[in-house]
Structures are given as C-alpha cells and as structure tokens.
Design a protein that fits this description.
- The chain has 4 helices and no strands.
- By secondary structure, the chain is mainly α.
- The protein has one domain.
- The protein is elongated.
Length: about 120
C-alpha cells in the first residue's frame, strides 16, 4: 500500500509543477483557498482524532499519523511555493511593463528637443 501513497505523492508533485506553469486567475485563487482550507481541517482533525490519522497512515504503509501529516504538509508547501512563484513572476512582468511605459512617457520627443513629457499622475 506504500507504493500507492508514493504514486499519489509523485502525481501531486507533477500537478504542482503543472499548476506553476499555467496562467492564473480567479479560478486559480479559489482552488488555492479550498486547498488551504482542507489543509487547516486536516491539521485540526489531527489534534482531536490522532488515532484516525495513525490508522490511515498504517493503511497506506506509513508508520505514524504524524508522518503522514508531515508528508501532506511537504506536498502542500510545494504547491504553495509553485503558486507563489507564479504570482511573483506575474508581478515582475507587470512591473517591467510599467517601467517601460514610464520610460516611454519620459523619453525626449523626436527631433532633438530636450523637453520631457511629464506623466499625468506623478507621485513624488
């Protein structure tokens, strides 16, 4: 039964990588919140029902329920890292686009004049 858990763990890693590479949106954020809520429920239930997690861990070939929850934590963390990486990459792209637009707005006009175009909303 341990092989089943190992296969599921590898599938979870592959899904996290695929999740990282695809574009995000409102649906992506909703899925992320649902996964986070499920993880909170798993951790809370482990406090009140540790024998359940030990039985479940033994069912899949893991010695203790705490080990099973640790493995789930690692997989959840991997998913979090993947989604955070994607979000930061999107923010970096937005900042780059804004910097380019500001550079174009402040560039001197063609024809050699030294006047700079001032942006309409400037924050000092």
């Amino acid at each position: 039964m341990l092989i089943v858990f190992q296969i599921l763990a590898v599938i979870a890693v592959i899904l996290a990588i695929a999740f990282m590479l695809r574009p995000g949106g409102a649906r992506h954020q909703a899925i992320r919140r649902i996964i986070f809520l499920a993880f909170i429920l798993i951790v809370a239930s482990s406090v009140f029902f540790p024998q359940f997690w030990t039985a479940l861990a033994n069912l899949v070939g893991i010695g203790r329920g705490a080990d099973l929850i640790t493995y789930l934590l690692v997989l959840t963390f991997l998913g979090y890292v993947a989604t955070t990486h994607r979000r930061f990459r999107s923010i970096e792209n937005d900042v780059t686009e804004l910097a380019r637009q500001i550079a174009l707005d402040r560039a001197p006009a063609p024809g050699g004049t030294a006047e700079r175009a001032e942006p309409s909303t400037r924050r000092d």
